[in-house]
Design goal:
The structure is a homodimer.
Chain A lengths: L1 H5 L5 E2 L10 H7 L6 H4 L6 E7 L5 E3 L13 H5 L8 E7 L2 E2 L3 E8 L3 H13 L6 E5 L1 H10 L11 E8 L1 H17 L6 E3 L2 H12 L1 H7 L5 E9 L5 H14 L3 E7 L4 E9 H21 L15 H8 L1 H14 L14
Antiparallel strand pairs in A: 1-5, 2-3, 2-4, 6-8, 6-9, 7-8, 7-11, 10-12, 11-12
GO molecular function (chains A, B): D-lactate dehydrogenase (cytochrome) activity; D-lactate dehydrogenase (NAD+) activity; FAD binding
Organism (chains A, B): Exophiala bonariae
Enzyme class (chains A, B): oxidoreductase
Chain lengths: ~350, ~350
């Protein structure tokens, strides 16, 4: 957000849009993504090169500045997403994107999460060039109303939030293609914003999602927020079954996600140890289901401490051993961010 | 080409478009790219996951199938472009792209290589969503005429070949944006093809470039073809000075390239050892200039045997040592494609 504020008179912007507190270093660490990834890819795609201090004290630059290169191993893509376990990143050169000629925001409600998810899948499968598509469940929409951080009242039902970007004509095309797909999947009429102020207002529910949830904490209550990603064809199944389990366990939690990437988040509010155990079951079941669907235990948050147990299940012993061999080669004394991703 | 032939009734295609003899395994090995990279990226962007047999006999799958993941190190991007030096790739899962609603091909001539290159740079800097932009110099155009593999005669002057792809409206927008930029840089009127047959015909000069050059070999003569890439802002400078040197050495060679990626090729015909030494000087000077411009010794062909000496200059000792540490960790006996990229 700071970077884009600095860039605002240049007609360029940095397109990766994670949670508002993210910092560039952390974004490199986790290969973060966020709302714009369906169009612009993830952090890895926007890193030109990195300067890294390795465990032996040597300072390396991963590559030079051409748009593409086939000169040796892709060290940038190895460091991005390695959560600080291979070295300390001291310089980051980023690409920027030109600000699109035309932008827009659209909001559509659906009777069920499945219907909303399936509309998003259709749109991506048809390669309609949207800027972003985000899914928010009924709980999340109600949380936003309760928190009152936006200046309107939202329908408390599964909702898709779209960004549009491109030339004047192409945005018009995109909106009309999205409109007919949404209609076919039982969506409401499109609410559409064109001016910058209207766009900001219409996107505000998405922007305020996490803060709204956090603002509902009472003293002693905690929030567990986590993410998984699955192949696009399976995301409607996963969203539906996860939603059912959260409800059946009597938990107060919301689902929202970068549905166009098959990536979504559960954010669950809990209080005390008994409820924590339920949350743990709910989250672990979500991860296991994602893995059964050939997905990943984390689409953008990273492994950190909390997902280490799932990494073996996801990748298998051989692949994990290959990662550890690289770790040992570059950091034999296991000095760099020890304990993250895997143990020595 | 075989893959896209198989896919032709599915409305999907594989967008990476290297030289016509490329095979999927080699494309993974070199992180190949080709004419469509300016829009669709390189091979790395289209590999979902890989199965790799490592030097110790273990079989690993680099990742699962989600569109994005932050679960551990990015092994796919490490293997892609590693030229077989880290393991034997036995399975490759690729993404496909939907065939665009509308396509087109456009051709524009310019008085100089610099003018043509600068037009291409402007187009990419303004993020005009072209499908491809290729530069061919006057020699290459004349070679195509002499070889006679296309059914027309081309103007023998620097030429840009464009592909357009998108919705009907967006292609119209793109063509008009490209048209005004080209005009401002002194380009000719646009020759434009809309039907599939016309497009094929208009693109034929680009398609036949390499074959045309090869067909001019006489007994005993050889072709040296190589590539470099530089930051987009420097490609016009590089193209101009390389062209001058090739002419001043009296060599018969052409320049063509994926100018939108700052990536281009010299293809030089030579006969005997004296001429070979001139070619070597010409190629080495091109590489050294690319490195001075913060570019790479190879944008898509890979290091192989021929560019090993430049890798140290490009990356520095520390970065090369980091690559070698990874190599040693995964292949301690240096069994995998030994001698490529670097020596033990």
């Amino acid at each position: 957000m700071d970077l884009n504020e600095k860039l605002k008179d240049t007609r360029l912007f940095f397109p990766i849009d994670p949670g508002p507190t993210a910092r560039i270093g952390g974004m490199v660490g986790t290969n973060c993504s966020g709302t714009n990834a369906v169009r612009y890819g993830t952090m890895r795609d926007w890193v030109v090169n990195l300067t890294v201090v390795l465990a032996d004290g040597s300072i390396v630059k991963t590559r030079r500045r051409p748009r593409k290169s086939s000169a040796g191993y892709n060290l940038s893509s190895l460091i991005v997403g390695s959560e600080g376990t291979l070295g300390i990143v001291t310089e980051i050169t980023l690409k920027l994107a030109p600000v699109p000629e035309e932008t827009g925001v659209g909001v559509v409600t659906f009777p069920t999460m499945r219907a909303a998810a399936e509309a998003a899948i259709d749109i991506v499968h048809k390669a309609v060039p949207i800027g972003a598509v985000e899914i928010l469940d009924d709980v999340q929409m109600s949380v936003i109303n309760r928190a009152g951080n936006t200046d309107r009242t939202w329908q408390e039902t599964p909702t898709l939030f779209f960004k549009f970007a491109g030339s004047k004509h192409s945005v018009k095309d995109t909106v009309s293609q999205v409109g007919s797909i949404v209609k076919a999947r039982g969506g409401s009429d499109f609410e559409f914003a064109k001016t910058e102020a209207e766009q900001k207002k219409l996107w505000s529910a998405r922007k305020e999602s996490l803060w709204s949830m956090l603002s509902l904490r009472t003293s002693g209550s905690e929030v567990w927020s986590t993410d998984v990603a699955v192949p696009l064809s399976r995301v409607a199944d996963l969203v539906e079954v996860c939603k059912e389990e959260m409800d059946s366990l009597g938990l107060f939690g919301s689902m929202l996600g970068h549905i166009g990437d098959g990536n979504f988040h559960e954010t669950i509010l809990y209080d005390g140890n008994t409820e924590r155990q339920k949350v743990e079951k709910c989250v672990h079941d979500m991860v296991r289901r994602a893995l059964e669907m050939d997905g990943t235990c984390t689409g953008e948050h990273g492994v950190g401490l909390g997902k280490k147990e799932f990494l073996l299940e996801e990748l298998g012993a051989g692949t994990l051993e290959m990662m550890k061999a690289i770790k040992r080669a570059l950091d034999p004394s296991w000095l760099m961010n020890p304990g993250k991703i895997f143990d020595a």
